[in-house]
Each structure stands twice: as structure tokens, then as C-alpha cells.
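haha ok so turns out i had the wrong file open the whole time. this is the CORRECT one, sorry everyone. sequence first:
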Amino acid sequence: MISVSNLSLKYGKRVLFEEVNVLFAQGNCYGVIGANGAGKSTFLKILSGEIDASTGRVDITPGERMAVLSQNHFEFDEHEVLQTVLMGHKVLWKIMSEKDALYAKEDFSEADGLRASELEGTFADMEGWNAESNAADMLSNLGIKEVLHHKLMKELSGSEKVRVLLAQALFGNPDILILDEPTNDLDVETIGWLENFLADFENIVIVVSHDRHFLDAVCTHVADIDYGKIQLYTGNYSFWYESSQLALRQRGDQNKKAEDKKKELEDFIARFSANASKSRQATSRKKLLEKLTIDEIRPSNRKYPAIMFKPEREPGDQILNIENLSYKEGDTVLFKNISFTTSKGEKIAVISKDHLAVSRFFDVLNGEQQATSGEYKWGVTIIPAYLPVDNTLYFQEDDLNLIDWLRQFSIDKDETFIRGFLGKMLFSGEETLKSCKVLSGGEKVRCMISRMMLKNGNCVILDEPTNHLDLESIQSFNNSLKEFKGNVLFSSHDHEFMQTVATRVIELTPNGIIDKLCTFDEYLESADVKEQRAKMYKEVVAV
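then structure:
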């Protein structure tokens, strides 16, 4: 159990947390949410003891072991991969190290023998003899092949290091598990494994993530950081979001009778309780929701950006035709012989094992890169609007304020008009005079979305649109694309985004495409697709 009492944190005049009181109990998974800058990662650092609060205290049940997903990707560079995982259990690793040091002594004494015997007993009680095999299994489940297990951490790629550090945190069944963005750099299959692992995990989990599908799969509670306070809510992220939106609508509906509002809330709770049966945590979550009272449902104070794509014209029947398109970068074939035709209103999720292939494919369609061979043709009525994953080129004039930056892309140069589009993305007042050179990654993406909305395109192309965005912006973006009547070509690591928007999935490979009219989940579960993927990538190895 973790108890937070009267906790406050101040940086000069800025108050991040004020008199926070919250209790994290055994057997629950808490998803910590809040707008960018609200202090989610800072709160996890306070819980783990990495930083101190200004006032208040954090108490952990005596004897309980805490494991934290390390954010320092270079800390273990001189250690072997398997050793790095074992080091996650500090007590066990200390025993193993002391044992090895004793047995390596040339002048092994009787006292050393007694100490070694004592250590061996403790080691056996902790099931230490299974530690290496358990750590190896953990690594394999997270996509780290056995051939890498005895390499030094510094020999691994960045994404491989992230997986090893995640294995380190999960290893040894910690009593308290603290995870900050654990799904970063993980593929869909590995995220699925992690979801199942945490759903079966019986101790305390406290997690920060922008992946709504992940939060829905693992969380029993939401810890909402807002106005310097932390409020706990029963249920997963979707329950929190929909209930807070319902409460907000009810608060604004002055004419609705109290009894009608109560009935609507009760029906909402009942519906979500029934849906809990689909979860791996079905029993516990359903019981929690059944105990929920309508008094616990409160409107959110969050501000959601107004992302609205309004096409300048209705698209015709000819959208996009691609014939034998190929792209090679250096000696690497990113995609080859890509041919397909897009139909009106389709929303196509484009995926690949190598995301660079997707980025280059989108760059080619937008004229920013030249294909190695093949051709593509947009319909005469089509106005594409592109959001690239790398927006560096758009912010080279970094001495511009936001109004002047956005004015570059607008036919209407009127300041009030420009401010309106910035306001939709939550830039208001003096913020619109901020210099581009001080923008965060998330602020730059919101500026790029404003630019897209100005273009009034009837086909939007989005390469990782959820990168750097907070949950509120992701939710708004998601809702906007579901309602958009034009065409969409997009790729995202956000599972919920892919599942709720895509009507067709196209996978780019170095040997052609896999093309299926279906949702993203149907694509992942399709036996036919799995067979095609095995063939495509087997051919790649053969080449």
C-alpha cells in the first residue's frame, strides 16, 4: 500500500501539487492522467523517492518492494542484458553478487563458508535458482532474442534498451510497480503481452501512458491530476472520459429534471459494468463498478482542442491511384511494387514493420520525396493536407511568433482570422505571441494541425499524429477523424486511434503489400493476414 499525505510541490511561485491526499491499494492498477505539464511524471518520481516534495509524505507498507521503469537508457551500458534484468531485484542481485565474490576468493575461509551457506539459504527461499531462466523468459516475451541476452547494454539499439529496462521493472514480482510510458517503442504484439501481464498482476501498478487502449486494458482506477489535486475514479480511461463528458453535458442542461439525470447516469454505469466482462480483469472491475455511486461521477475541468477538418469541396469518385510504387533508401528496399486504388470515403491505416517505410511512402505521395519507380495520381478534385512525423522544416524561421507563423499558410491574412485557428488548438491571448523557437514538441504538433485545418483538404494524410500530444488532444483528434467525411491515410502507434478510425488496412513490405478491408483489430486477428505476413517476410529473408 502507498499512502500520500498532505503532499505539496512548488517551484518558485508555481504550485504543481497542493495538499494531495491519496491512497493506492493492493491489487489495483492506477492510470495517472492529466494535461501536459500537470505533473504526471513528477508525481511518479516523488512516489519512487527520486525527488522530494516541498511538504507532506509518502508512506509505503514496510517490507514491500518497489520497482520503477528506468528512464536513464545509459545507466546499465557496461552490464550484460540478462544481468541488467536481474539487477531489477536489488536484494536478490546483492545476494548473487556477494555469493559470486565469496566463491571467487582464493583464500576461502570457514567464516566465508558460513556466510555462503547463509546466503544460499536466503537465495533458495527467494527462488533464486529460477531467476536467470525467469529473466530470460521475460526478455523473450518483450521481443529481446536470446542471442542478445549476454551482450552489453551499450550494444543494443534504443528500442531494445527500452524493452530490457521494462523487463527489469517487471522482474521478480514487485509489490509496487511504477511505469512511466511503458508502451513507448513497443510493437502491437508486445503491448498485447504487457497488457495481459499487468491484467494478471496481483500487486499495485501505477502507470502513466498516452495509449488509451492500454489504459483501458489494464486500469481499475484513474488518478486524475487537475488544478494541483489528484482525484481517484473507479474504472478505466474510457469510463472516466465518457462519464465526465456525460456529467458535463448534464451540468449544462438546466431544463433536465433531476430524476432524468439520475436515471441516465445509472444506465451509463450499468452499461459499463456489463462491458467489463470483456476485460481480463472482469471480475474485480465489475465488482468495483457495481459499487460506484452516481455522486462519484463529476464533470472534467479539461479543455479539449477543437480539431475540425472542413473540406473546401466535395471529392469526386477518383481519389488516389498507385501503380507499382517502390522506394529504396541506400541499399535498403523500404517498399516495392505497391499498387492500389482508393475509394471515396475510405480511411486507410498504413502500417509496416519498419515505420520509415510508411513515412517515406507518405512523403512520396506529398511530393516531398521521389519514388525509385512506379507512379501515383491524385484525382483532380482532391486537396491533400499532410501532417508529417518530422515537422522540423516547418519551424526553421524560429524567430516568428505563432500568429506570423500560421499566417504564412493562410490566404486570409487577417489577425483575428488567424487567432481563431490558433484558439481552436488552445493557443490564446499572449500565448499567440510566443516565439516558435520555444515551442514544445506537443505545441509544434498543435500548430501543424492548425495549418492543416486552414488548408480545408478533403483527404488528410497523418504520419504518427498522436506523437507529443496529451490525452485530451488525442481524444479530440480521434473524434474528429471518426466524423470526417473525406478520405484519410494515416499511421499511428495509438491502438485505439487505429481501431476506431480505420476501415481498411494496408501493410507495406519490401515485397509488396497486404491489403484488407477491415478494422485494425480484425487485421491483427486474421489468420489469412498472418499467413500473408509470414510469406512476405520470409521472402525478404530469402532475398
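Residues 234-296 form one domain.
again sry for the mixup
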